[in-house]
Design a protein that fits this description.
By secondary structure, this protein is mainly alpha-helical. It is built from 13 helices and no strands. α9 packs across α10 (140-150). It is globular and about 55 Å long.
């Protein structure tokens, strides 16, 4: 085992979990879990602790808001209350509004199925990122989070390592390019490695994903 492989092994042992997994999302290439990942990315798109964003996702899902149709049908107050139970403060009201608007957009544009967004991008990762940013409150950071987590089910996104992950890799003596990092793990482990690198850079109490 090379030194880089040993570094990756230790990294995965300490930080090897995706945010989707932590939020209870069983990510598959089906409409509901893809939308749940999008919801998580909306929650991460403000300056708030990652753990609170994950807890907020769990509260929304526990309230039954797991699909764009359910989210759009919920009241603004229901969404605010779910966010409040996770102590998602300061941004609860604006985020409740963004979640409602985003759900309506996904229903109107993609009939509730983000696989249609993928089809509209025709397999182009950059176009996928552009289309994701049409959803309310999803910016470049949110699109990067979606892509690094979704690369496990959308192969055209592989390898997806955003700037923060690449910076962490370089600091650890690992390759600084997505292709170089991809050579260190199996394809199915790419989302876990990308998330682990981000967690390693941010430390054990990250403020953003």
């Amino acid at each position: 085992m090379t030194e880089q492989h040993e570094t990756v092994r230790r990294l995965l042992n300490e930080f090897g979990r995706t945010h989707a997994g932590e939020a209870g999302i069983r990510l598959r290439n089906t409409p509901a879990p893809l939308y749940q990942l999008l919801t998580l990315c909306v929650l991460f798109s403000v300056r708030i602790k990652a753990g609170i964003a994950v807890d907020a996702a769990r509260e929304l899902f526990a309230a039954g808001l797991r699909t764009p149709r359910a989210m759009a049908a919920s009241s603004w107050q229901e969404r605010v209350d779910a966010l409040g139970r996770a102590h998602y403060r300061r941004y609860d009201e604006s985020t409740a509004t963004a979640l409602g608007a985003g759900a309506e957009f996904v229903l109107d544009r993609y009939r509730g199925d983000l696989r249609r967004l993928r089809d509209a991008a025709d397999g182009d990762p950059d176009r996928i990122r552009e289309l994701l940013q049409e959803v309310t409150r999803i910016g470049p950071v949110g699109a990067d989070i979606f892509c690094r987590e979704a690369q496990g089910v959308w192969p055209e996104l592989r390898p997806s390592f955003d700037r923060r992950a690449r910076h962490a890799a370089a600091a650890l003596g690992l390759p600084g390019t997505p292709a170089g990092l991809a050579r260190l793990v199996a394809a199915e482990d790419l989302p876990v490695l990308a998330a682990a690198l981000v967690r390693a850079e941010l430390g054990k109490t990250p403020t953003r994903a």
